[in-house]
Specification:
Helix content is 19%, strand content 39%. The chain is α+β, with helices and mostly antiparallel strands. Helix 1 packs parallel to helix 2.
């Protein structure tokens, strides 16, 4: 099989010469995956020279079509050869896979330009009056049952256990959004997760930040340079756009996450963590030595504001940005460019993709430091903190 690609931004035209069958389906799928990772969400395949299409080839095409439709894009075949058209007609898949001359194009949603240091994009208003409330959950000798819901974000330390007594000594980094909770156990290299669904979840909280309320803004951004844009730059731009402290969530293509995770269960820490005590910090936390999970998807959430904004729990992240953010890395998944509810995207990433790791984001831009967390493109949601916005 020969595959030629012409890509312009979000659109790609692909010419296929040869058979799309068991021998070539993996090659074709891998090439399409490269296009999606490069930002293409509208793909048209010229199938005039496609000489054969097997059932496995059809499955590849349908999977790609479903994948791109889910993020507001599209995948179609044009100019199919006689043999390919015959297979598609027999399977009655023409309306799904073939280009139609009267195919309707959705009208664009009103958006305004949105840019910052290292990125460009556009943003939309989701709910004009939306705002969020933040509750700080202090460490306690008695674990609290998690009570998250559809409009809740939690970041902190949590454990999955059937009872509070079983949770002791098992707390690790946690990120939960819209009833989907992921936790990095201190006794396992593999993160775990659960879906609250319609009932209570066997999850327990030691300490953290609970955010409740709706998101006011949605943006889609693209990094200007290939190495990616710093997460702190996106956060800074959102703080400036809102004019005050915010709750924020970012779902994107990771260019590397930098941070720390608990090495020992925090409920066993007898004294508060002191950043000035290097040995004590290293005994309790493990750090990413360099940007990790490059090329995977990431889900980041937390609160942020300018220095001196008066919001408890914020620590310096970068110049002009204080924040408390947790980042989750998972297997790559294409993300929407249209204004999509945070809950939808977060649950897809937490519940449907293999999770690689969870860290508390910590930037270290020194020449010999671990680096800064970055993304290449991302969906961003944010909302002002009640009592803290403009």
């Amino acid at each position: 099989m020969r595959i030629e690609v012409q890509q312009e931004g979000r659109s790609a035209r692909v010419t296929v010469d040869g058979r799309l069958d068991a021998a070539w389906s993996d090659t074709f799928t891998a090439r399409m995956d490269e296009l999606v990772r490069a930002g293409a969400d509208t793909i048209v395949v010229d199938a005039a020279q496609m000489t054969f299409l097997s059932s496995l080839g059809i499955r590849c095409l349908i999977t790609l079509s479903q994948r791109l439709r889910a993020v507001g894009g599209s995948f179609r075949l044009s100019n199919p050869s006689e043999s390919v058209r015959k297979v598609i007609d027999i399977a009655r898949l023409g309306p799904i896979l073939l280009v139609s001359s009267n195919h309707a194009v959705a009208a664009p949603v009103t958006a305004v330009a949105f840019s910052g240091d290292g990125f460009t994009g556009e943003r939309r208003v989701l709910e004009e009056r939306a705002q969020v409330r933040v509750e700080s959950i202090e460490p306690s000798s008695a674990p609290q049952a998690w009570r998250g819901g559809a409009s809740t974000i939690f970041l902190g330390y949590a454990a999955l256990a059937s009872a509070a007594a079983d949770a002791r000594g098992r707390f690790g980094e946690c990120l939960a959004i819209a009833g989907a909770l992921a936790v990095q156990p201190i006794d396992s290299p593999e993160p775990d997760f659960m879906d609250q669904g319609n009932g209570a979840m066997p999850a327990w909280i030691h300490a953290g930040i609970d955010v409740s309320g709706a998101m006011r803004h949605f943006a889609h951004i693209e990094a200007i340079d290939d190495p990616g844009v710093a997460v702190s730059s996106i956060v800074r731009a959102c703080i400036a756009a809102e004019g005050g402290p915010i709750a924020i969530s970012i779902a994107g293509l990771s260019a590397g996450l930098c941070g720390a995770a608990a090495r020992t269960s925090p409920d066993g820490w007898t004294t508060p963590l002191d950043p000035r005590d290097g040995d004590g910090v290293r005994k309790r936390l493990r750090f990413t030595g360099e940007p990790s999970w490059i090329g995977e998807s990431t889900l980041i959430a937390g609160i942020a504001g300018a220095p001196g904004c008066g919001v408890p729990g914020l620590v310096p992240l970068a110049d002009g940005v204080h924040a408390h953010l947790h980042g989750l890395a998972c297997a790559f998944r294409a993300l929407p460019r249209t204004a999509t509810p945070l809950a939808t995207v977060a649950r897809q990433l937490v519940l449907e993709q293999p999770i690689r790791g969870i860290v508390h984001l910590v930037d270290d831009p020194r020449a010999d430091g671990a680096g800064r967390s970055k993304v290449r493109r991302a969906c961003v949601w944010w909302s002002p903190l009640a009592g803290g916005g403009r």
